[in-house]
Prior knowledge:
- It is built from 22 helices and 14 strands.
- It is an alpha+beta fold.
- The chain folds into 3 domains: 2-217, no CATH class; 283-450, no CATH class; 460-515, no CATH class.
- A hairpin with a 6-residue loop joins strand 10 and strand 11 (403-408).
- Helix 11 (269-283) packs parallel to helix 15 (337-351) and helix 13 packs across helix 16 (371-387).
- It starts with a strand and ends in a 5-residue tail after the last helix.
Amino acid sequence: MDSKKINDDSPIKIEDAVRFISTKQRLKQLYFDASKGKKTNPVIGIRRGLLQRKLQIEEWRKDDRKRVKEFLYSLFKGTADTDSLMLIPIDLVTSSLEEKLDDAIDKSSKDSIRDTIKDVAIDIKDGIQFYLLDGQNRIFEAIIPFMDGEVSLGEKKLYAIDTSKNNTRTVLSGKSYKDLPIPVKEFFDNIEVYIHFAEKGDIDSFIEALIAKNSNVGWIDWQKQTTENTFTKFRKQIGQVINNDEDNFIIDKVFSNIKSVDYKPEKDGYELLISEMLIWMKTLTQPKKGSTNMQSQFFKGEDGNVISESMVVELTKYLREFATVSGDPQFKKTVKHTLVRNYVMFRYAMEHSKSMGFKTLVLPNWKIEKEAEFVAQYFIVTNDLYKDKNAWTPIYHPRTKQIAKYDKVPGYLPYATSGYTKTLLMERIRIISEALLKKETVLSDGNVITIIDSDKMPSVETVATNSNMKDYKGRKVYGVEVVTGKFQRGHVTPGSKGGSNTDLKLQPSKSNQSYGANPL
C-alpha cells in the first residue's frame, strides 16, 4: 500500500489522538482483500451483524440496483475519487475493547464488553485483519458483485476509447465485468480508491471520525448514538432482530408499513422501535418520545440495563407472527407502530403471565396453533375496541350545539393508547386480553389456539388411588407396579387438544408412548 502520514514530520504530537494514513488501493487488490477471490478467507470484513446494515443493503439493491450502477459509473468516470473508505486494523479494536474492560466498574458492563470481544475474536479466527468502518456497500454491494458477475453496468451512456488501436470506441453500457475487453478490464482493475487507514486511536475516536466524515449527512441524535455504540452488545442485539431475518419478512411486512416519521428507515427508525420494545420487555417502561436516555443506559450495559438473548428471540418471534397478516392489503393501511407495540406487549405478557409484573392481569393460558389467524383476530379485536361507541364521549360546540369532536373515555383502548405511562401500558394489555378471552371458545373450536390446563398434574400414585387401582381399560393394577414405574399418567384427552391435567388414567409406559397425542 502506498501511504502518506498526515503531519508525520511535525514535532507536535497530540496525546491520545487518532492518526489515519492516507492511502490508495487498486480495485483488483481491494477485491481480493475483501472477497474470497483467490484467498481462502477475506482479510477485510465488517463487524458481524452490525455494520452491514440490512436496510442500507436494501437501499442499494432496490430499483434494479440503481445506486450500485451509479457508483460503478462514477468509478469509470473518475468522479468517485473523493469518496474514501475507512479501514481499522482489528487488533486496534481488540486492544481498545480490552482497555474498556479494564475501566468498566460493574460486572454487567464487563460481561457486555466480554461478549463483544468474543465476537471480534471469531472474526480474527476467520482471518479478518481489518474492519471496514465506512464504505461497506461500495465494496460489498457494488465492486465485488460487479467483478463476480452478479451485476452489470447501467444503461447510462459509457464509452471506452483505446488509444493503442486508433482510438477505437467501445460501448460499456449494460456490460458485465467478464464481457469487458481485456484492456478495459485491466483499466478497471487498476482504478485506485482513497482509503483512510487507522494507525492509532481507540474505538470511540474512530467512531467520532466516522461521524465527522459524514457530518454533511445530517444525522439525528439517535443515529449518532447507534453509531457511537457500534461495538456494544445492545447495538448487536438491536441488529439481530433484523439481521437474523434472512428473508426480510419482518422488514417487508411490518416495519416498511409503519407510517410514523419517527420510525422511518432513513432515521434508523426501525432500530429505534426495536430498542424501545426490548427496553419495555426488560423494564415494562417505554422510553419517552424524542428521548434516548434509556437507550444510552442499555448501550453501557450497566447492572439492571441488560437485555437477555431470550428477549431478542422472543421479540423476533412476535414480530414474525405479526408479519403473517400485516402485509395483507386489507390490513396494510392500519399498521401503526402502536398496533405493533401493543401486540408485542400482549404476547410477552401472555407468555410471562406468572411473572411479578403481570400478576394483576388476567391473561390467556393458550398455545397458538394458527399464527396468521390469531394475529388476524387480534387485528379485528383491536379495531372493534377503537370503534366501541362507549370509548368516545361526544363534545358539542357551544354555539352550534353539534358534535365538534370526541374525547377518549378512561377504561377503554383509545384512552389507554393516549399515553405511555406504566399504568396505561398495562391497561392496554388488560383490555386486549379481556377482549380476546371472550373469543376463547371460538378460537379453540377453530383450532386457532389450544387451551392449556394450568392445574398441577397429580402424581402417578394419586392417579392410581383415584382410579381404584385400575388402569385406563379397567384392569387391576398392583401397588408395586405403580411405584416401580410400570405405569404413567395418560391424558383422557391429550393436553395438546385441550385436555385437562386432572382428567387422567393409569396407562402402561409403552402404551402411553404409542398413543402419543391420541385420546384414550
